[in-house]
Amino acid sequence: MKRKLIFTLTALLVTIVLSGCTALGPGKEDVTLRVAALRGPTGVGMVKMLEEQPSLGKNVTTEYQVAETPDIVTARVLSQEIDIAALPTNVAANLYNKGAGYKLLAINTWGNLYLISNQVEISSWDDLEGKTINSIGLGATPDLVFRSLLIANGLDPKKDVTMDYSMAQVELAGALSAGRVALAVLPEPLVTTTLTKNASLKIVMSLEDEWKKIYGKNIAIAQGCLVVREEFANSHPEVVASFLKEYQESLAWINNNLEQAGILVEKHSLGMPAAVAAQAIPRSNIRYMAALDAKSQVEAYLNVLLALAPQAVGGKLPDEGFYYKR
User: Fold this and answer.
1) Which CATH topology does 28-110+222-322 take?
2) Are 227 and 103 in contact (CB under 8 A)?
3) Which neighbouring-strand residues pair with 103?
4) In angstroms, rounded to a whole number, what is the distance separating the alpha carbons of residues 56 and 65?
5) Rounded average pLDDT over 288-301
6) pLDDT 10s digits, 231-256
7) Cα 149 from Cα 168, distance rounded (Å)
8) Which of 3, 17, 102, 180 would staple 175 via disulfide (CB 3.0–4.6 Å)?
């Protein structure tokens, strides 16, 4: 009887120990975080992390990938292949409205769009009347932002100016550098690339500055963002928090170490040579703001796009669930 009691107590003790180990298990499970960056300013913010591969936890492995275009990242997001991704903010809203299962983590890229002139005197919006302006893709972010500003400044994009979408962005930058285009809307780093190749070119408008004149000095263009897969965020909030801490440090380092950042941008194939990156970063307006803190600016931006091209944001303004909160 005594031996049976000892055996029973021993079995119970083993069960308790094993139960304790199981309870601790989730904190020790292997976790893989899959991160997608975009070539260009939206991905540049991640370059220090690409270089250093910082630890996000004892059992956490981070897999980074750099994609050429938003379409590639979007496809991977839709197939749930990515946990955290850098995307244009309107694409993030569109995906959320379609039920893709991703939330807005932070804004990382503000207005980096500029109107470049090739010896055409432009000092006000009225000076654009009757002019041909080249832009990248009807319905793309540069086009939507520029057309919204035309309208806000009393110009009809269909009547008062001629919008030319005949060239892709690299081709357009080349044509501008070669003097074959008079006026063009371009993002960084293509702005810096063209300016370094043709001394006759100059920036005549920062669309970020023009946006603030219309919508208020504290309302910037919430152009690029980070999104997180909702299921991953719910299961591993501590990993998301660690990632965001490292990401904020990466952004701060980039803005304070332009030459070193430029070297890393070239090394990790983020779309520009080191010298161009060092010059382009200040005009790229790369800075971190958490989703909830940026909400008013995100909504202002998306509302403008919604009025101009509803399909660009998924037909409606995202609800409160769009904004990640731990």
Assistant:
1) D-Maltodextrin-Binding Protein; domain 2 (3.40.190)
2) yes
3) 228
4) 17
5) 97
6) 999 999 999 999 999 999 999 999 99
7) 22
8) 180
**Is the whole-model pTM more than 0.85?**
yes
CATH code: domain 113-215 is 3.40.190.10
Alpha carbon distance 214, 211 (integer Å): 5
Which of 205, 77, 70 has its CA nearest to residue 145?
205
Q: Could you tell me how far CA 189 lies from the centroid of its own chain?
A: 14
Which residues have C-beta within 8 Å of that of residue 292, sequence separation ≥ 6? 323, 324, 325
DSSP per-residue string spanning 258-302: HHHHHHHHHHTT-SS-HHHHHHHHHHHTEEEEETTTTHHHHHHHH
Residue owning tokens 């009393």:
154
Instruction: Report whether 94 contacts 107 (CB < 8 A).
Output: no
- Delimit the domains of the chain by residue range: 28-110+222-322, 113-215
- Residue 321 gets which letter from DSSP? G
- pLDDT (tens digit per residue) in 95-107: 999 999 999 999 9
162: left (phi over 0), alpha (psi -120 to 50) or beta: beta
* Prior bond of 189 cis (ω within 30°): yes
Q: Are 92 and 223 in contact (CB under 8 A)?
A: no
Query: Apex CA 84: angle with CA 313 and CA 207, to 5°?
Result: 45
Rounded Cα distance between 125 and 276, Å, is: 29
Using DSSP, state whether 245 is helix, strand or coil: helix
The reply to whether domains 28-110+222-322 and 113-215 share a CATH topology is: yes
Q: Tell me how long the chain is.
A: 326
Residue type, 207: L
